Each structure stands twice: as structure tokens, then as C-alpha cells.
Amino acid sequence: MHTDAFPTRYGPWALVAGAAVGLGAEYARQIAGRGLALVLVDRDAGPLEATAQEVRDASGVEVRTLVLDLARADIADAVVAATSGLEIGLLVYNAAIGTVAPFLEISTANVQAMIDVNCRAPLFLVHAFAPAMVTRGRGGIVLMSSMAGNVGAAQLTVYAATKAFDLVFADALWAELRGHGVDVLAVQPGQTRTPGWQSSQPPELRGPGPHVMEPPQVVTEALAALGVETNLIPGDLNRQSAQMLASLPRRQAIELISSITETLVTTGRTS
Questions:
Q1: Contact indicator for 226, 173 with CB cutoff of 8 Å
Q2: List of domains in the chain
Q3: Is the pTM above the cut of 0.90?
Q4: Whole-angstrom Cα distance, residue 114 to residue 161?
Q5: Most buried residue among 11, 127, 201, 259 by CB atoms closer than 10 A?
């Protein structure tokens, strides 16, 4: 959407969940640059406040912070209570927990955390904030999925499944809400240089290269696609890779991706 129309369509407040670092912090910067005030949510207080202050200094918009664990059972109630009186016109759900490990080695607590943060929290936050958007006849919802959500792969069993949930959830929301003036976009980034991604990579692959995108590139494409597309895979190389994968028989696609992911054995939180 054209920058001048953005505040009218999605303002006056945006809520970004998972906003402390990485893609979430970049969403905060670029949304503030388009004139919206911000509510930034994350569990990591120090980095969250640092990002908020950076955005305040750079843009001059009002930025509020909520230090909350998105895995908590009452996350939607807590966020709604903390934003009482604010007109949230744009919801960006960026938070995720990604564990790279054999399925049988993942603890039940870790599985539960991935389901809570990656699936339950975005579902209930949308359920909480979308009705007012529908009533106003305008608004936007951006759900961060992943290219991992297209095909199951070894070492990514639960993470990939949760990201498939986000993708299908966004598809259905787009179909249901578009007639009410609410734009929904699923974003499927590939490898992007966030702290979570870097923690999952061997040192030799953490540097710049054609295989990895930078957060500003991903967010710029995402905000441009909101209200235009239903789904976005940022980056020409990523789109070409997705098309190639989709052209394969599913078994071959699973085997191909698993041959890559089986080499990754670290665990960590992804952005």
C-alpha cells in the first residue's frame, strides 16, 4: 500500500508481538516510519526497551512496551487489558520458538511452548483484535509463517507444523475478513539474518551471502504486499526455491529438505 494511505488504513496504533530484536524490531522501525504509534510486546525487557527508544528517537511516534511472555495462557486478555482505549489498526505477529532437533529428543515442555507461542497466541490475539477492525471496516493483520511451513522436514517436525498452522490460518482469515475491509497477509521468510537464525547456523554460514536476507528487505516487501497479496515469500531466490520445491513429488521434496535440516542439531528461539 502507498505510504501516504498507510496510517488511514491501518492506524492509528500498531501492535507488534515479538518486537525486541530481528524482524519484529524492523517491523517497529518501518511501521513507525509510516506514521503509526506502536505497542511493542516481547518477554525480553532490555532489548525491547532499547528497540522502543531507538524507534522513538528516530520517528517521534509514541511507543509503548509490554513485557509479556507470549506463551502465557492469558496472553490475549493481558494484551487487551494493557491496550484498553487504544485503536489497534494493525496487528503483526512475529514471535516464534523454533527448536531444531529430532522429534523424540524434544521435551514435552518445549513442544508445548512452541504450540503456545507459534499457534495459540496469534490465534487468540487475532480473535481479540479483529472484531474491532471489522466494525471499523479497516485494518490489517500480518502473520509470520516460514518457508518451513510448506513441507515437513527432519529436525523441524514441530516448528514446521506450527508454521504450517500459521500459513493456513492466515489463508482462511484472508478469505473471511477481506469482505469486511481487513487485510490479512501471511509472510514466509526464508533464511534471514536474525539473532535466532544466526544461533542455529554454523559460524561459516552466518556472514553475508546470497542465501540469506536482511530484516529490512523482508519487512519492506511484507508491508508493500499487505492489502495486495494473500501470501508473500520475500526474495527472488526464495520464491524460485519454493517454486522448485512445489514442482517435486512431495516425498522427494521432504527428502530434499530433510537432507539439509538433518545437519542442523542446535536448538534456539527464532525471530
A1: no
A2: 10-268 (3.40.50.720)
A3: yes
A4: 10
A5: 11
What backbone torsions phi and psi does residue 204 show, to the nearest 5 degrees?
Answer: -70, -15
DSSP 64: E
Question: What average pLDDT does range 141-160 have in this prediction?
Answer: 97
The answer, yes or no, to whether residue 205 has pLDDT greater than 60, is: no
Is 93 catalytic? The answer is no
Residue 204 has what pLDDT? Answer: 54
* Residue type (1 letter), 186: A
Give the integer Cα–Cα distance in Å for 119 and 195.
Answer: 21
Locate 220 and state its grid cell.
Answer: 519492506
CA atoms within 13 A on the CB side of 19: 33
Residues facing 98 on adjacent strands: 268
3-state DSSP assignment of residue 239? helix
* Nearest CA-CA partner of 232 in 139, 163, 143: 143
Q: Per residue, what are the HEC states of 90-118?
A: EEEECCCCEECCCHHHCCHHHHHHHHHHH
